């Protein structure tokens, strides 16, 4: 705890609100990771934390350090931009891999591949199957 | 211009990155950052990335604003779904969307937009048929999603990249 | 007063982010399939990055920012590498 005591009240309140909002949004997203049923639904969940969660916590950090050092501290923008660019790429690659595995597995089981799209995400039905 | 700066956008991003990381806009850092930008741009030519011409900066800004609004809105929607408010019945599903876009950078941008918006997810793009498959967390009306993607995003991306 | 509020909200935010990390870790343990585990890892790394930023605000150290930046980069590289492994590694030999 060094430095925070010197924050003026408005900055402290703003930082606190941003922090709590960001952390709450991130937690809701991560809860979705546990609560949603199939893999393709679960992929939606962490994007909450990487979009709004990151933006709010980076904003809190920006407000806090800008006021403390009485100059514009903007380098948290880098984390926001980095997160906004990298997360969709990682998730798209991951979904591609999952889709490939589903199709390959069904081909192995001798089921019709059809439009090569797992409409019911069959992999999740066989829970507990060792990977 | 093209020989010295093969990728002007990447180079300017590198310069901005350097200045932000050092948190200083002094003459020395601008000089060093320009050096990094020049060298980084030249190194990218080794990878033989197809070059891109981006048009209509006004459309880009409008698209960015729209994507920001959509991200906030769908954050709220997905949060409500995760916490279990609203309708109990929810039908996740795949939607197939016929796309007119063929430019690789436009498709990549569309993939980033769709995936980073909570609630929609880029699954696959069939280049032969031009059919894009997305996964939607709360699928109410298939036609409406097709219209949304095509009107809100693809039209602008077509203007920018083609 | 407002300082006290900030102190407590820092604490609460850290607890919330810790729980979020726990969710990611639980998904890694539960699976059921390899891609779920990779997704859990991705979420965990993003949440850990946010926790580092929060710790940075708490201590007033600028160093945590750099740690968070490195964490974000390594999380991305790790997720893509694992996804590529799933694509090429084991299902079809």
UniProtKB/TrEMBL annotation, chain A:
Q: Which InterPro entries match?
A: PhaG_MnhG_YufB
Q: What sections of the protein cross the membrane?
A: 12-36, 48-68, 74-98
Keyword set, alphabetical order: Membrane, Transmembrane, Transmembrane helix
GO MF term set: sodium:proton antiporter activity
The name of this protein is Putative K(+)/H(+) antiporter subunit G
Annotated organism of origin: Bradyrhizobium vignae
Show the taxonomic lineage: Bacteria, Pseudomonadati, Pseudomonadota, Alphaproteobacteria, Hyphomicrobiales
From TrEMBL, chain C:
Q: Which GO terms describe its molecular function?
A: sodium:proton antiporter activity
Instruction: Tell me the compartments it is located in.
Output: Cell membrane
Domain of life of the organism encoding this protein:
Bacteria
Q: What is this protein called?
A: K+/H+ antiporter subunit F
* Residue stretches spanning the membrane: 6-26, 38-57, 63-87
Q: Which family does it belong to?
A: Belongs to the CPA3 antiporters (TC 2.A.63) subunit F family.
Mainly resides where?
A: membrane
Instruction: Name the NCBIfam families for this protein.
Output: PRK06161.1
Q: How does it sit in the membrane?
A: Multi-pass membrane protein
**InterPro entries the UniProt entry points to:** MrpF/PhaF-like
Q: Which GO terms describe its cellular component?
A: plasma membrane
Q: Which organism is it from?
A: Bradyrhizobium vignae
Keyword Cell membrane included in the entry's annotation: yes
């Amino acid at each position: 705890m060094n430095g925070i005591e010197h924050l003026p009240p408005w900055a402290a309140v703003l930082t606190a609100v941003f922090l709590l909002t960001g952390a709450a949004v991130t937690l809701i997203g991560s809860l979705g990771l546990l609560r949603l049923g199939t893999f393709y639904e679960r992929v939606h969940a962490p994007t909450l934390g990487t979009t709004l969660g990151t933006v709010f916590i980076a904003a809190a950090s920006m407000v806090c350090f800008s006021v403390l050092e009485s100059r514009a501290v903007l380098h948290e923008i880098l984390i926001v931009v980095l997160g906004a660019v990298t997360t969709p790429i990682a998730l798209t690659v991951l979904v591609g891999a999952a889709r490939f595995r589903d199709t390959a597995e069904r081909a192995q089981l001798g089921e019709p591949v059809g439009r090569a799209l797992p409409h019911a995400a069959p992999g999740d039905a066989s829970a507990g199957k060792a990977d | 211009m093209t020989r010295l700066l093969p990728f002007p956008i990447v180079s300017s991003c590198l310069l901005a990155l350097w200045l932000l990381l050092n948190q200083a806009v002094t003459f020395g850092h601008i000089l060093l950052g320009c050096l990094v930008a020049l060298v980084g741009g030249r190194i990218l030519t080794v990878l033989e990335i197809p070059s891109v011409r981006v048009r209509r900066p006004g459309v880009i800004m409008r698209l960015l604003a729209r994507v920001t609004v959509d991200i906030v809105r769908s954050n709220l929607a997905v949060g409500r779904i995760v916490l279990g408010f609203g309708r109990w019945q929810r039908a996740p599903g795949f939607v197939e969307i016929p796309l007119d876009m063929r430019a690789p950078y436009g498709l990549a941008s569309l993939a980033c937009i769709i995936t980073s918006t909570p609630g929609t997810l880029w699954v696959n793009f069939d280049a032969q048929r031009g059919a894009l498959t997305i996964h939607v967390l709360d699928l109410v009306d298939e036609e409406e999603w097709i219209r949304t993607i095509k009107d809100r995003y693809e039209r602008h991306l077509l203007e920018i990249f083609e | 007063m407002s300082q006290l509020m900030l102190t407590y909200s820092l604490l609460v935010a850290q607890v919330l982010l810790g729980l979020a990390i726990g969710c990611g870790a639980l998904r890694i343990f539960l699976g059921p399939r390899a891609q779920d585990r990779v997704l859990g890892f991705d979420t965990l790394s993003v949440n850990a990055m946010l926790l580092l930023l929060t710790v940075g605000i708490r201590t007033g150290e600028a160093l945590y920012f750099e740690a968070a930046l490195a964490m974000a980069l390594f999380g991305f590289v790790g997720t893509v590498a694992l996804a590529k492994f799933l694509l090429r590694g084991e299902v079809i030999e």
